[in-house]
Design a protein that fits this description.
100 residues; alpha+beta; Ribosomal Protein L30, Chain: A; three-stranded antiparallel sheet
Amino acid sequence: MLHVKNDIQTDSQEVTDVLTLTEDTCNLIVWNDEVNTFEWVIDTLMEVCGHAQEQAEQCAYLIHFQGKYAVKNGSYDVLKPQCDAITERGINATVEIIAG
C-alpha cells in the first residue's frame, strides 16, 4: 500500500511530499468444518505453519469453538503459499489483510 505524507516546514514554509511504501500485514485464517479431525488440523498446522504441538492444539480448539482463527500473521507473500498448502489438504483457509 502506498501512503503519501505531507511534511510542512514552518520555518521555510516548504511542503515536501514523502512517499513511503508499507507492506500490509495479513492474517492466515483457518475455518472450522465438520469434516477434518482435530489431529489432521493439528498435524497440518505443525507441518505447514511450523507450530509447536501445543500451539497447534490451541489453534485447533479456537478454530473449533470460534468458527475460525488467525493461526499466523505476516506478509501476503509469506502467508499465501501456506494458505494454499492448507487448502490442498482439504482444510478451509484464507488470507485476510488487517485493516490499519
